């Protein structure tokens, strides 16, 4: 075995070793998430609810019907957003690639809000809502990519980011116009628009699961190709990797993951920016390790953000998206400063 192979194998194993402490931290945060809130619940009640559920217990009803769906939604949305960010950053070779910055979240939000303004009989429900959000996000990102690729210099990192920000602002303007004209829709999506897990129900979570699982499997399947594409398109093609189809599969998976997260919890930003950078550093190279770590770290970060959202102010609960923005905005500015430098 050459020294290069030994270094690669050591890096691969070291990346997997980070998974155990990450999952342990996620479990601890999950327990803290279930037990804290407006009505603190002792750990013993958590154990009783898991081992011998009593429908007559008010605390156990709160756990099972309110806090558990919210926790599962945080885990799924955090993992989905982080994996979508990792896919975008790998496919575009851009550390600023993130669903919230590149227009996927804004497109998904516009699709969901526009459908919410339709008559009740025409409004999408369940999986259809997630599919609609993914389609809206994917369509806006395609426009961003097309405009950013135009011109003599072609696609550049700076053009992509500015186009993403500009078209996200345009989509947000359309959302505002719809809400100004439709007071009922405004009341319906007011908190959801800033990214909020408070109103998540069990059917919301269950309906998004099939698309999330399918997109995660698709992302995992293309990770060996992403390893080859990290060497450059020409080298990957020389190794027999279908670069074009890999990009299409990866971008569709990213759109599906971010669309499902938006359909459940609204446009929560910056998870897909912060987490992939950490996951890639811990993984040390292989995309399959980075993808799994990103999912675990994204889930843990969003659960922690939701705990903070519920407990930062003693008498009020703030939206989860506000706490992620408080952390993510400085990180985004730091990355932009490094990129421009």
Total helical segments: 15
* Order of helical and strand elements: HHHHHHHHHHHHHHH
Shape: globular
Average pLDDT reading: 86
Poorly predicted regions are none
The CA-CA distance between the termini, in Å, is: 40 Å
What is the C-alpha radius of gyration, as a whole number of Å?
Answer: 20 Å
Q: What share of the residues lie within helices?
A: over 70%
From the helix content, strand content and strand pairing, which structural class follows?
mainly alpha
| Main sheet properties | none
Tally of extended strands?
Answer: 0
- Kindly estimate the percentage of residues that lie in beta strands according to DSSP: under 5%
How is the secondary structure organized here?
Blueprint: H1 3-17, H2 19-35, H3 43-51, H4 58-92, H5 104-116, H6 127-149, H7 157-181, H8 183-189, H9 202-221, H10 223-229, H11 233-238, H12 243-265, H13 271-283, H14 287-311, H15 320-340
Helix pairs in contact: 2-4, 2-14, 3-4, 4-9, 4-12, 4-13, 4-14, 5-6, 5-7, 5-12, 6-7, 6-9, 6-12, 7-8, 9-12, 13-14, 14-15
Question: What features would you describe in this structure?
Answer:
The structure is a single chain. With 341 residues, the protein is mainly alpha-helical. The chain is globular.
Summarize the structure.
The protein has 341 residues and is mostly helical. The protein has 15 helices and no strands.
Short descriptors:
341 residues; mainly alpha; 76% helix; 0% strand
């Amino acid at each position: 075995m050459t020294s290069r192979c030994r270094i690669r194998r050591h890096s691969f194993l070291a990346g997997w070793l980070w998974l155990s402490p990450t999952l342990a931290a996620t479990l601890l945060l999950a327990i803290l998430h279930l037990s804290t809130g407006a009505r603190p619940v002792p750990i013993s009640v958590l154990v009783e609810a898991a081992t011998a559920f009593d429908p007559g217990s008010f605390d156990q009803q709160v756990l099972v019907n309110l806090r558990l769906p919210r926790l599962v939604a945080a885990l799924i949305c955090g993992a989905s957003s982080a994996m979508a960010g990792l896919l975008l950053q790998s496919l575009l070779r851009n550390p600023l690639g993130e669903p919230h910055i590149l227009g996927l979240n804004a497109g998904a939000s516009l699709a969901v809000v526009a459908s919410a303004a339709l008559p009740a009989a025409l409004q999408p429900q369940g999986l259809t809502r997630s599919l609609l959000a993914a389609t809206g996000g994917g369509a806006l990102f395609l426009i961003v990519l097309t405009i950013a690729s135009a011109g003599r210099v072609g696609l550049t990192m700076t053009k992509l980011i500015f186009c993403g920000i500009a078209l996200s602002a345009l989509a947000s303007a359309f959302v505002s116009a719809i809400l100004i004209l439709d007071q009922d829709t405004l009341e319906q999506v007011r908190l959801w628009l800033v990214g909020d897990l408070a109103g998540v129900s069990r059917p919301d979570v269950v309906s998004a699961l099939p698309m999330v699982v399918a997109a995660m499997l698709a992302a995992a399947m293309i990770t060996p190709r992403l390893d080859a594409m990290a060497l450059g398109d020409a080298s990957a093609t020389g190794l027999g990797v279908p670069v074009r189809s890999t990009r299409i599969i990866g971008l569709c998976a990213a759109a599906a993951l971010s669309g499902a997260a938006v359909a459940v919890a609204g446009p929560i930003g910056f998870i897909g920016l912060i987490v992939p950078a950490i996951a890639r550093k811990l993984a040390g190279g292989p995309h399959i390790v980075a993808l799994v770590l990103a999912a675990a770290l994204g889930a843990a970060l969003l659960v922690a953000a939701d705990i903070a959202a519920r407990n930062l102010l003693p008498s009020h609960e703030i939206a989860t998206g506000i706490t992620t923005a408080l952390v993510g905005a400085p990180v985004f500015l730091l990355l932009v400063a490094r990129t421009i430098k």
